[in-house]
């Protein structure tokens, strides 16, 4: 179990969004994919400890209608034992489950927020359902 987990930085390096303006077919539900591309020791001059830099991709495909791809990285600070375990496990492209889930959730949250904005800008359907307000019918009091 990780004792310390701090997010030091998160950034997108490349964003690609495409929509086929001639598309006439049926709009399908988007498929998504999150991929951790690399994990490496990282040195930030402001802190004395080594951090970990994780490079990722996040993809949404809307069938023939279009796609959205984001590439970026995040930098995290872990306790010494967790850091060693992550770097050792990554040699076989694995990662401790609790840390992997935390990282994937961070990528999903940040990328989804950016994706919602971009989908709206180019006219792609939203990949997640936004909450809606509805009129609530009043029940008559029968007392």
Average residue-wise pLDDT: 92
What number of domains?
1
Specify the structural class: alpha+beta
Overall radius of gyration: 20 Å
Question: Could you estimate the helical fraction of the residues in percent?
Answer: 25-40%
Low-confidence stretches: none
Largest sheet: 4 strands, antiparallel
Describe the structure.
This protein has 143 residues and is α+β, with helices and mostly antiparallel strands. It is 25% helix and 37% strand. It has one domain. Strands 1-4-3-2 form a 4-stranded antiparallel sheet. The protein has 2 helices and 4 strands, in the order ββββαα.
List the helices and strands and how they pair.
Elements: E1 5-19, E2 31-43, E3 50-61, E4 66-78, H1 80-89, H2 97-122
Antiparallel strand pairs: 1-4, 2-3, 3-4
Features:
143 residues; globular; single chain; alpha+beta
Overview in brief:
The protein is an alpha+beta fold. It has helices at residues 80-89, 97-122; strands spanning 5-19, 31-43, 50-61, 66-78.
């Amino acid at each position: 179990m990780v004792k310390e987990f701090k997010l030091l930085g998160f950034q997108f390096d490349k964003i690609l969004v495409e929509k086929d303006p001639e598309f006439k077919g049926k709009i399908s539900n988007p498929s998504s994919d999150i991929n951790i591309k690399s994990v490496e020791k990282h040195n930030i001059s402001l802190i004395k400890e080594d951090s970990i830099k994780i490079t990722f991709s996040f993809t949404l495909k809307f069938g023939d209608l279009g796609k959205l791809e984001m590439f970026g990285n995040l930098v995290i600070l872990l306790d010494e034992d967790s850091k060693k375990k992550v770097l050792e496990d990554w040699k076989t492209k694995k990662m401790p489950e609790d840390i992997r889930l935390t990282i994937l959730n961070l990528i999903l949250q940040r990328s989804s927020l950016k994706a919602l904005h971009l989908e709206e800008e180019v006219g792609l359907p939203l990949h997640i359902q936004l909450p809606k307000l509805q009129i609530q019918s009043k029940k008559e009091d029968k007392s």
